[in-house]
Design a protein that fits this description.
Length: 113
């Protein structure tokens, strides 16, 4: 799944009227040339002990990208991200047309008498 790992939980914040399903995705990004990248690529080929792997990891060699979805969908957690991403891409296009291309201002001026 493109390097994404995920987990889910039910959550009810103080302002919410009901419990909602939250799915959290995480994907690791390794810095070029870092030892962490080499350890990850060798995991299947060479059996390193956990202590050896931790010794090889650099503290700042990995950054994580997160995506969090609050949803009422009943699909398995692994299917939530692919369903929501196209929607976000479409909304970004509308946002660019409206704000960066200034179409929101043009429409507002035309609608005035």
């Amino acid at each position: 799944m493109d390097g994404w790992s995920y987990c889910e939980a039910d959550l009810k914040l103080s302002g919410w009227t009901r419990i909602r399903r939250v799915v959290v995705y995480r994907r690791a990004h390794y810095k070029k040339g870092s030892k962490a990248k080499r350890v990850q690529s060798l995991e299947g080929a060479v059996e390193n002990t956990q202590a050896e792997q931790l010794e090889l990891l650099e503290e700042d060699a990995v950054n994580y990208e997160y995506a969090i979805y609050v949803t009422s969908l009943s699909q398995p957690a692994g299917e939530i991200r692919p369903l929501y991403n196209p929607r976000g891409d479409n909304e970004n296009c509308y946002d660019e047309l409206k704000n960066q291309w200034d179409w929101g201002r043009v429409y507002a001026q035309r609608s005035r008498p």
